[in-house]
Amino acid sequence: MSASIAFIGLGNMGGPMAANLVAAGHHVTGFDLVPAALEAAATHGVAIAATAAEAVATADVVITMLPSGRHVLEAYRGGGPGGGLLAAAGAGTLFIESSTIAVDDARAAHALAAEAGHRNIDAPVSGGVIGAIAGTLTFMVGASPADFESARGILETMGRRVVLCGEPGSGQAAKICNNLILGVSMIAVSEAFVLGEKLGLTHQALFDVASAASGQCWALTTNCPVPGPVPASPANRDYQPGFAGALMAKDLGLAVEALHSTGVEAEVGSLAADIYRKFADEGGAGLDFSAIITVIRARSEG
Ligand code: NAD
């Protein structure tokens, strides 16, 4: 069934996600603060609004795909051309929040939406820009069962897997827990390859053993940080992302916030967050996060 959808935030992810909704027959009205993003979306059939409030005024569903929790909360309740979403939407509008934001911010957004008489779910994604273009994203959803059912068809238009993780906030929780595993495991795989190099082990030999043994993981077998064993991994193209170091640093920063707010002691995860933050600040922001191996190797010289 065709829906009237407002799409707020038409950047690297939001632009192609909105285009897929149009291609599926939905009426999509978009808004972004950057004119170039609006122009690009218009070429895919997205109707352009003059303000975010105008975009949501006649929508059944509002999707936000913004940089951070601060942007989401400002868009929900703040002023200016990108704000005022909750006040402008019709009663009972379904807000789908797909940005990657802190669990606490997702819960705050849910509470604000509920207070304003709306429904809200968190539905962050994995799969990157390639998945957004191809419509193969994975959505991790925090929602009541009823709101999940209302959103499911729309999410399936933009993604291949849609997983209900629990109550509001649970989608963001699943996302940061997964990326905590990913960030730490990439560092472990990279340290093992550098140690192997020093011990005279070829990359292929270590790969052949570990990929079929207990060291097996996605960081090794899909996103292998050395060129050769997995031809499609970013290491084979000078670490062009893939999943950028800046995003890994951001997501582990959110994981650390959650570690603090819950009192969980995660020494390795906290250290991994520091390592990626430094990596991103010192030139790795635009590289695939697997380029962390180059830092480990450089530190091991001499
Ligand atoms: P982006 O910076 O390309 O796009 C964000 C857009 O939001 C920008 O165009 C910006 O102008 C716009 N914006 C900010 N405030 C606004 C407002 N009030 N109203 C309208 N537009 C506003 O970022 P992106 O890569 O598309 O990522 C979006 C979100 O998805 C982030 O939370 C990111 O962490 C998450 N994410 C990104 C990827 C990825 O590979 N890029 C993967 C998974 C998740």
From TrEMBL:
Its gene is mmsB
The UniProt entry, under NCBIfam families, shows: HIBADH
Active-site feature positions: 175
Where does the record place the 3-hydroxyisobutyrate dehydrogenase-like NAD-binding domain? 169-295
Gene source species: Lacisediminihabitans profunda
Hey, which family's this protein in?
Belongs to the HIBADH-related family.
Q: Which GO terms describe its biological process?
A: L-valine catabolic process
- Reaction it catalyzes: 3-hydroxy-2-methylpropanoate + NAD(+) = 2-methyl-3-oxopropanoate + NADH + H(+)
Q: What is its EC number?
A: 1.1.1.31
Q: What is the lineage of its organism?
A: Bacteria, Bacillati, Actinomycetota, Actinomycetes, Micrococcales
Keyword check for Ribosomal protein: no
- Pathway of action: Amino-acid degradation; L-valine degradation
Q: Which PANTHER family match?
A: 3-HYDROXYISOBUTYRATE DEHYDROGENASE, MITOCHONDRIAL, 3-HYDROXYISOBUTYRATE DEHYDROGENASE-RELATED
Keywords linked to the UniProt accession = Branched-chain amino acid catabolism, NAD, Oxidoreductase
InterPro entries, alphabetically?
A: 3-OH-isobutyrate_DH-rel_CS (IPR002204), 6-PGluconate_DH-like_C_sf (IPR008927), 6PGD_dom2 (IPR013328), 6PGDH_NADP-bd (IPR006115), HIBADH (IPR011548), HIBADH-like_NADP-bd (IPR029154), HIBADH-related (IPR015815), NAD(P)-bd_dom_sf (IPR036291)
- List, in alphabetical order, the Gene Ontology terms for molecular function in this entry: 3-hydroxyisobutyrate dehydrogenase activity; NAD binding; NADP binding
Q: What is this protein called?
A: 3-hydroxyisobutyrate dehydrogenase
Residues in 6-phosphogluconate dehydrogenase NADP-binding domain copies = 4-166
Question: PROSITE patterns annotated for this entry?
Answer: 3_HYDROXYISOBUT_DH (PS00895)
